[in-house]
Amino acid sequence: MGPRVKFTKEQIVDVAFEIAKEEGMDGITMRKIAEKLGSSVAPIYVNFKDIHELIEAVVNRIMEMSQQLLAEESTGNPFYDMGMASFKFAQEYSVLFRDLVLKDGNYLKNYDEDMLPMLVEEMKKDPELEGFSEEELKTILFKVRTFQLGLSVMTANGLLPKDLSIKDLMEILGSAAEDIVLSTRIKKNQ
C-alpha cells in the first residue's frame, strides 16, 4: 500500500474554486476534485464532511474575494467602490457571478447580513450623504445596488455594447446614484 496523500483544506478549496470558475457551482464534485488532485476522494473527506461543507468553503472564498475587490477600490465613494468591485467580478468571473446572482440558491444568503452594514457605515463617511438617517441610507443603497446589479448582470452576460468600458459603466452608475441621492434629498425636504 502506497503512502497516503495529504492535501490541505486550502488546496482542496483552490481546486474546487477553479472548477466553479469554469463550470459553475454545480460543477463541483468530490470526484472531479480528486481527479484534479490526482488522488482518491478519501483525502477530501478527511477535510470536509460532505460536498455542502466544501461548497460553503468555496462561497466563503468568493465572499472574501468580493470584500478584497471592494477594499482595493476604497476611494471614499461607496457607490463607486461597490460598482467597480461588482463590475470587475462580473467581468472576470462571469460564470460564478451568474451562478451566485441568477440561480435560485442560497449561496448569497449571508451577503446582506455581512456586507450591508459595512456599506452603510462607509456611506456615513461620505459628505454627500450627510443628513440622511440610517433607514434612508439603506433605501438609497438598495436602489443603487439594484441599478448596479442590473449593469453587472448585463456585464456577466455580454449584453452591453462592445465599446462600453468599465469607466463608462462607472459614469452611468455614478449618474444614477446622484439621481437617487438627489431625489431622496428632495423628498426628505418636502
Written description of the protein model:
- The chain has helices spanning 9-23, 30-37, 42-47, 51-73, 78-92, 94-102, 111-124, 134-156, 166-189.
- It is mainly α and 190 residues long.
- It contains 9 helices and no strands.
- 25% of the residues are buried.
- The mean pLDDT is 90.
- Residues 29-48 bind DNA.
- Keywords: DNA-binding.
- This is TetR/AcrR family transcriptional regulator.
- One of its GO terms (molecular function) is DNA binding.
Summarize the structure.
The protein has 190 residues and is mainly alpha-helical. It has helices at residues 9-23, 30-37, 42-47, 51-73, 78-92, 94-102, 111-124, 134-156, 166-189.
Set down the secondary structure blueprint.
Layout: H1 9-23, H2 30-37, H3 42-47, H4 51-73, H5 78-92, H6 94-102, H7 111-124, H8 134-156, H9 166-189
Helix pairs in contact: 1-2, 1-4, 4-5, 5-6, 5-8, 5-9, 7-8, 8-9
